[in-house]
Amino acid sequence: MKDTTKYVGLDVSKEKIAVAIADEGRNEPRYLGMISNTPNSIR
Question: pTM for the complete prediction?
Fold first, then answer.
């Protein structure tokens, strides 16, 4: 099994969190979408 590194970016505001992920060696991150800034959504 090969280990890979992933980078997670979170842009946090009071109501929403934008989520993006980038793979090691990849040029641009992938935008995954928005979630609510609540404990249940974060889980």
Answer: 0.75
How far separated are the first and last CA of the chain, in Å rounded? 27
Are 18 and 11 spatial neighbours (Cβ–Cβ below 8 Å)? yes
In angstroms, the Cα distances linking 41 to 7, 15, 32 are: 20, 11, 14
Would you list the domain boundaries of the chain? Answer: 6-38
pLDDT digits (tens, 9 = 90+) for 1-43: 788 899 999 999 999 999 999 998 878 999 999 999 999 998 9
